[in-house]
Amino acid sequence: MNAVPAPGPLCPEGIRHVSHTPTSPPCTRGPLISVEGTTGVGKTYLTGRAVERLHDKPLLLDGFAARTNERPGLGRALLRGLCEAAQGDPFLRGGTPMAEALLLMAIKRHDLDTVLPDLAGGRTVVEGRSVDSTAVCQAALLHPNDQDAALETAVSLLHLAASYRPLPDLTILVTDDARAAVSRAQQRDRCIFTAEQVLFMQQASLLYERVAATDPGRYRIVDRRHIDEHEAADQIRSWIRTAQTNVRCLREPWQAMGACMCCGHQTAAVTA
Ligand SMILES: Nc1ncnc2c1ncn2[C@@H]1O[C@H](COP(=O)(O)OP(=O)(O)OP(=O)(O)O)[C@@H](O)[C@H]1O
Ligand SMILES: Cc1cn([C@H]2C[C@H](O)[C@@H](COP(=O)(O)O)O2)c(=O)[nH]c1=O
Asked: Which residues form the Thymidylate kinase-like domain (predicted)?
């Protein structure tokens, strides 16, 4: 299921989807899983509930806001640069969305680099947000008044991200009524979002769902409008377990030929 940066088939909406044909051989590494969704939707809460009953605990990679004690290094420096430029904006918007997109992708590449030893050791890694957040948030920023253009840009940004690093094997999208997510985030952060910020969250929320629909092979969706927190946690746990049983070699997407980043097995590029 690893990323191949070549364009995939057209999905029904006329948007190219990112192909993840599992052509690599099976591997002993752990699966790389991301949890996505808008601010306050419950990604951290539900992931925590899901993994508390797993015997082999996954490594949980915190979302950005939770990285208060991150080790000094490039990842922290890049994130600090973005935060400084954003001057307190909760969505890290500093006014240059494409430059920010590339920096966000670099941070997510750095995240992958830091967890490679865990993956190689067979451990499951769960990223709190991955490159899908970059694609969705930056596309929503670039096209605030055109949802179709935002979708097209989000999918293109995912292709770009997939040339920097393999996409997650599995992406769990947590979705809900956008107002419920806003309200949870406000309560948690003891703040009131501006009308403009709420609108941005609503647009991002919708865009996550549309992007997920372009790649049903990679995405699983937890819709909190239809299931309670116990069912949601059970569902996430079950997907994590399934992902652990179908893991394939992880290649550098920008290398035509290359060894698996985890087990070292030599695999050929996919040209489809
Ligand atoms: N089912 C629930 N019951 C009680 N509290 C919940 C539930 N789901 C989420 N919350 C609370 O709502 C708030 C937002 O949830 P959470 O922090 O998990 O969202 P998130 O998607 O990780 O947000 P962010 O992207 O901003 O990190 C938290 O305070 C969390 O504890
Ligand atoms: C990874 C990533 C994050 N963001 C935004 C989304 C949130 O509003 C903030 C904080 O992220 P957290 O992981 O929920 O703490 O950053 C983004 O715009 N693009 C991204 O790639």
From this structure: 35-224
Rounded to 5 degrees, φ, ψ at 250 are -110, 115
Cα-based distances in Å from 74 to 1, 102, 107, 147: 28, 14, 8, 34
Tell me whether residue 207 is in a domain: yes
- Domain annotation covers residue 2: no
Between CA 235 and CA 226 the distance in angstroms is: 12
Q: Which token pair is 64?
A: 């950005």
- Tokens for 242? 């399934």
Pocket of ligand 2 (CB under 6 A): 39, 63-65, 90-92, 104, 128-129, 133-134, 137
Q: Whose CA is nearest to atom 8 of ligand 2?
A: 91
pLDDT tens per residue, range 64-117? 999 988 889 999 999 999 999 999 999 999 999 999 999 999 999 999 999 999
Task: Please tell me what DSSP assigns to residue 231.
Answer: H
Nearest CA to ligand 2 atom 11: 64
Question: Residue length, the chain?
Answer: 272
What is the CATH classification number for the domain harbouring 71?
3.40.50.300
The interface predicted TM-score (ipTM) is 0.97
Q: Could you tell me the residue range of the domain that residue 56 belongs to?
A: 7-268
Structural domains of the chain, count: 1
Distance of CA 245 from the midpoint of ligand 2 (Å): 29
**Residue 173 backbone phi and psi in degrees, to 5:** -95, 120
Tell me the pTM.
0.93
